[in-house]
Amino acid sequence: MALFLFRFYPVLLPLILYLLWFYLVRSRALKTGKEPPKFSDAPIFLLLMSSFIIAIICFIVLGFSVVDDSKKGVYQPSHMEGDKLVPAQVVP
């Protein structure tokens, strides 16, 4: 799970940047006495589409990433040998 989150955190980047910008603009507006912006004024469609595009790029990059063939093996499911249960394993 950690590897999945580590590789796909860029999808959240547009939302994080927007929240940071929103906080800075809101605090600046409150200091000057102006009306602060509302969260609902956000370009939500643009944020979602940019996150979607980043997710597609991540999938494409991971799909074309090079896998080391020397680490491949053959999966052997668990099975019985005599009266002993042999656990599943990957045999090189």
Characteristics of this structure?
52% helix; 92 residues; elongated; two-stranded antiparallel sheet; 4 strands; single chain; 13% strand
SSE pattern, N- to C-terminal = HHHEEEE
Beta percentage is 5-15%
Radius of gyration: 24 Å
Cross-sheet strand order for the largest sheet: 1-4
How is the secondary structure organized here?
Elements: H1 2-8, H2 13-32, H3 44-64, E1 74-76, E2 79-81, E3 84-86, E4 89-91
Antiparallel strand pairs: 1-4, 2-3
Helix pairs in contact: 2-3
Please tell me about this protein's structure:
There is one protein chain. The protein has three helices and four strands; from the N terminus they run H-H-H-E-E-E-E. With 92 residues, the protein is an alpha+beta fold. The strands form two sheets. Strands 1-4 form a two-stranded antiparallel ribbon. A two-stranded antiparallel sheet has the order 2-3. It is elongated. The model has no long low-confidence stretch (mean pLDDT 82).
Give a quick summary of the entry:
The chain has 92 residues and is an alpha+beta fold. 52% of the residues lie in helices and 13% in strands.
